[in-house]
Amino acid sequence: MASLLLKMTVVGQHVPTYTIAKEMTGFGASLMECILTFALVYTVYAVGDTRHGTLGAIGPLAIGFIAGANVLAAGPFSGGSMNSACAFGPLIGAAVYWVGPLIGAAAADLVYENVMFPSHAPEGVGV
Q1: Is the Cβ–Cβ distance between 8 and 15 less than 8 Å?
Q2: 24: alpha, beta or left, given left = phi > 0 and alpha = psi -120 to 50?
Q3: Cα distance between residue 59 and residue 78, in whole Å
Q4: What is the pLDDT of residue 112?
Q5: pTM of the prediction?
Q6: Helix (H, G, I), strand (E, B) or coil at 114
Q7: Rounded mean pLDDT of the chain?
Q8: Domain residue ranges of the chain, discontinuous segments joined by +
Q9: Has the keyword Membrane been applied to this entry (predicted)?
């Protein structure tokens, strides 16, 4: 990978960074990153949860498929970052890559823990 980046800079090409397409607004790109991160984090929660059994080798494959699908779907529009750390260096202060993934990850956590597997208090507690 390093040799590819070195070759790209030597030939005069630029190292790819996350950019928002001209057709997208900042809000639209942030919303897209939010949805992508939600899908990724939800998949990670779902395959790692042992309450419904283990998925074995299928779990990491599912995570790889959702990450790849997200990048293919959003790459031309917002870069398909799904991770604030990836965009931190080249784009310090870009709210699209901070707000969207953080909201998407928090929403995936809330939906998975409260909608899919809500925890019930034992009977007689709090009465």
Answers
A1: yes
A2: beta
A3: 27
A4: 92
A5: 0.58
A6: helix
A7: 77
A8: 30-116
A9: yes
Asked if 54 and 121 count as a contact pair (C-beta separation under 8 A), the reply is no
In the DSSP assignment, the letter for residue 5 is H
**Does 103 score more than 50 pLDDT?**
yes
Which residue bears the tokens 């779990």? 59
Q: Which of 100, 127, 98 is nearest to 38 (CA)?
A: 100
Class of domain 30-116: mainly alpha
- Tokens representing 113 are 């823990």
**Closest of 89, 86, 116, 114 to residue 100, by C-alpha:** 86
The answer to whether 18 and 33 have CB atoms below 8 angstroms apart is no
88/9: higher pLDDT: 88
- Looking at per-residue pLDDT, the higher value among 86 and 39 belongs to 39
Read off the pLDDT band of 41 (50, 70, 90): very high
Residue 9 CA to residue 68 CA, distance in Å, equals 26
**Interatomic CA distance for residues 101 and 82, integer angstroms:** 6
How distant is the alpha carbon of residue 8 from its chain centre? Answer: 27
Nearest to 46, CA basis, from 32, 33, 65, 31: 65
